[in-house]
């Protein structure tokens, strides 16, 4: 039985953990996420010393390096505020893998405590903020790609679509095999480029087949992979982070 | 007979070949889509999670008492008249089976479906000793005719389509070239029936070995298992030591999970429970039944409380059916007896990481395998654990631990670690990278073969947040 997750009331302050991919490649998505939270009257704290959750090394097997990097993040959230992450993948890493990563170390209980405060952005917007959206954009059709980590590690396949459904002018269309991986998988895309390419090729075809003019995702890894493939094929369609999409249409 | 050989060392080449073969691509895509749909539909009326929980607990309970249960199984089998043999590895198991065959002067062995026998290359071993070993599962029969190994653990010939099967049967057995599936099935049935009648020994696998009763359970759809275990005068069952369950009542939930997860069936056409040889006054059944229990690295996995979870597997193949990598590259690409996600966590124990180091990385960790596993094996976590073993960061419990650790990779991760633990250097490098973004190479090796390189942002989130804060202060 999937446990029912109980959500706390809206917090007056939250921490924002931007993730390294957002920091480097999609900073606007991070800022838009912060703006969405601020518009809800929440004070957003952005610990300046944040870098990376440690996932790349963790999934590559480099446990000690991953632990060192993750440990540096654990110190950044001393107050009991929620930690909002605009990525299912990094959110999943922090919420579900930190306990394994720090098992048997001095930081085990701190890691567990931090993990218990981690929320993916769309999850927090839906379940805690009960975000209402005033759509000011034109009517359009949009497809959503939910990352595997948001879907399976965090159990959040619904929160993105729930937010999009609150945009009056947006029609959400489902892609074929929506639950199938886009082929990013962090270092997987580099270690097994051909297999990954076959996966992303099917994904771009599925997204195109929906006829949607836009697609959104809450994960920058998937976006980088899918957009990179679309661009390589010189297709006009480009995806954007759901935070940017929501902000753009409602501000 | 030379069987087409695939090796896990050549995963990249084999995957490349499969990806470039449109026939393979479409055969697997179609077959896996069908199996995924069937599984989803058959579970819709079940409380799947409760059943999975039950299945996982049954397997965990059995594994927790594995040594005891194996002794109990042996005692109860012997009491039922089943002779029990223990094999340290595949080679020893092959020798035991060959010697049993030789002691009966057997020249011909008919085989029911058994992945353990594939794992230990029993056919080649028997044939080298002048004993013919014929597969009687239709899929296994076809791949054997085609001089291949199975590409899936439940549907060994899933990589072949009707046309290819028609060609194989025509070329090897002289049947008509036709797409008529009924005709081909009938032809194969006639060919196999004759072999069942003339075989000296029948070899089968085991799905569940029940310790409390000494019963061997065999799940199948075609009757080959029943024929194999009843027609020849001698039946030899062969199984990995992990297949034991504690009680008879443990079998129905596992059986329900197995058939639904594998082929979307509520029940299979046949479910055999073998409890001993022919008894006095009975008209049929083998005069001798043997059970060969094979270790082959399993007790080594058993020593490790994480890796132990691998042994829960009930061989349904659902992880393969749902794996986006398996679906694209097919079972042969892995070059191992057990392909796909379960193979990637099982084979390193059997062959060592020297041979299999690419397999644990051949997954995007999308989690589909873990999500569908009927006994809740945390496959993605175990893949990561084996990646740790491969780079020497595990507990060293897997043969070949550390084989994938290279100076270059270690240096790269150390550099990354340094940057990510020195925030001002991290921010500085982001600022620098943003300024030099025009110089970002547009070719990033394999990545840009199929994708355009991602572009670094002009200003990092760190920088944007800073400006945002300043703006906010300006407003107030």
UniProtKB/TrEMBL annotation, chain A:
Signal peptide: none annotated. InterPro entries: Cys_rich_dom. GO terms for molecular function: oxidoreductase activity. One of its GO terms (cellular component) is cytosol. Residues 14-95, 142-226 form the Cysteine-rich domain. It comes from the Bacteria. PANTHER family: LACTATE UTILIZATION PROTEIN A, UNCHARACTERIZED PROTEIN YKGE. This is Lactate utilization protein A. The gene is lutA_1.
UniProtKB/TrEMBL annotation, chain B:
Residues 304-333 form the 4Fe-4S ferredoxin-type domain. GO terms for molecular function: 4 iron, 4 sulfur cluster binding; metal ion binding. PROSITE patterns: 4FE4S_FER_1, 4FE4S_FER_2. Keywords: 4Fe-4S, Electron transport, Iron, Iron-sulfur, Metal-binding, Repeat, Transport. It comes from the Bacteria. PANTHER family: LACTATE UTILIZATION PROTEIN B. This is Lactate utilization protein B. The gene is lutB.
């Amino acid at each position: 039985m999937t446990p029912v997750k109980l959500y706390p009331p809206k917090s007056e302050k939250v921490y924002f953990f931007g993730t390294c991919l957002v920091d480097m490649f999609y900073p606007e998505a991070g800022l838009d996420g912060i703006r969405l939270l601020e518009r809800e009257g929440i004070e957003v704290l952005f610990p300046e010393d944040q870098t990376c959750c440690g996932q790349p090394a963790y999934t590559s097997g480099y446990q000690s390096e991953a632990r060192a990097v993750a440990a540096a993040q654990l110190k950044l959230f001393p107050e009991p505020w929620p930690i909002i992450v605009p990525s299912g993948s990094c959110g999943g890493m922090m919420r579900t893998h930190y306990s394994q990563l720090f098992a048997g170390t001095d930081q085990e209980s701190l890691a567990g405590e931090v993990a218990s405060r981690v929320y993916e952005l769309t999850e927090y917007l839906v379940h805690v903020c009960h975000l209402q959206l005033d759509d000011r954009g034109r009517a359009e059709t949009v497809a959503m790609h939910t990352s595997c980590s948001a879907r399976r590690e965090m159990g959040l396949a619904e929160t993105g679509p729930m937010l999009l459904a609150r945009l009056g002018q947006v029609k959400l269309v489902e892609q074929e095999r929506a639950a199938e991986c886009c082929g990013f998988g962090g270092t997987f895309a580099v270690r097994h480029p051909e297999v990954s390419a076959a996966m992303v090729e099917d994904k771009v075809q599925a997204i195109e087949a929906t006829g949607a003019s836009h697609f959104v995702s809450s994960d920058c890894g998937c976006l980088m992979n899918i957009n990179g493939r679309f661009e390589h094929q010189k297709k006009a369609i480009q995806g954007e982070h759901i935070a940017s999409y929501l902000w753009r249409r409602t501000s | 007979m030379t069987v087409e050989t695939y090796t896990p060392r050549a995963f990249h080449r084999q995957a490349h070949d499969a990806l470039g073969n449109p026939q393979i691509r479409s055969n697997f895509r179609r077959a896996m889509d069908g199996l995924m749909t069937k599984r989803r539909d058959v579970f819709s009326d079940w409380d799947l999670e409760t059943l999975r929980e039950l299945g996982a607990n049954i397997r965990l309970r059995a594994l927790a008492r594995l040594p005891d249960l194996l002794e109990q199984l042996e005692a109860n089998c012997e009491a039922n008249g089943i002779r029990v043999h223990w094999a340290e590895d595949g080679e020893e198991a092959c020798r035991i089976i060959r010697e049993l065959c030789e002691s009966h002067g057997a020249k011909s062995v008919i085989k029911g479906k058994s992945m353990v026998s594939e794992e230990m290359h029993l056919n080649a071993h028997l044939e080298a000793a002048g004993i013919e070993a014929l597969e009687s599962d239709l899929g296994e029969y076809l791949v054997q005719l085609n001089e291949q190994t199975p590409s899936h653990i439940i549907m060994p010939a899933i990589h072949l389509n009707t046309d290819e099967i028609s060609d194989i049967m025509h070329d090897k057995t002289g049947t008509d070239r036709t797409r008529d599936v009924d005709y081909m099935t009938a032809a194969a049935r006639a060919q196999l029936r004759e072999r069942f009648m003339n075989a000296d020994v029948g070899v089968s696998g085991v799905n569940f070995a029940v310790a409390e009763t000494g019963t061997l359970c065999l799940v199948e759809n075609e009757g080959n298992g029943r024929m194999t275990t009843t027609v020849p005068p001698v039946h030899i069952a062969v199984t990995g030591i992990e297949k034991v369950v504690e009680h008879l009542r443990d079998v129905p939930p596992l059986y329900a999970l197995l058939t639904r997860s594998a082929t979307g069936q509520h029940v299979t056409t046949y479910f055999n429970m073998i409890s001993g040889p022919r008894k006095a006054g009975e008209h049929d059944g083998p005069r001798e039944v043997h059970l060969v229990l094979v270790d082959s690295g399993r007790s080594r996995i058993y020593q490790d409380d994480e890796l132990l979870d691998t042994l829960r597997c009930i061989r349904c193949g659902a992880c393969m059916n749902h794996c986006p990598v398996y679906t694209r590259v097919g079972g042969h690409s892995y070059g191992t007896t057990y392909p796909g996600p379960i193979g990637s966590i099982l084979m390193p124990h059997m062959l060592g990481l020297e041979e299999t180091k690419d397999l644990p990385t051949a997954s995007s960790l999308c989690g589909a395998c873990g999500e569908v596993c009927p006994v809740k094996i945390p496959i993605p976590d175990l893949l990561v654990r084996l990646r740790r073993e491969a780079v020497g960061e595990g507990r060293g419990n897997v043969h070949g631990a550390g084989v994938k650790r290279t100076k270059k990779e270690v240096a790269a991760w150390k550099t990354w670690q340094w940057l990510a633990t020195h925030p001002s250097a991290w921010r500085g490098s982001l600022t620098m990278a943003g300024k030099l973004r025009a110089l970002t190479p547009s070719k990033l090796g394999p990545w840009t073969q199929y994708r355009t390189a991602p572009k670094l942002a002009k200003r990092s989130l760190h920088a944007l947040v800073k400006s945002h804060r300043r703006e906010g202060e300006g407003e107030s």
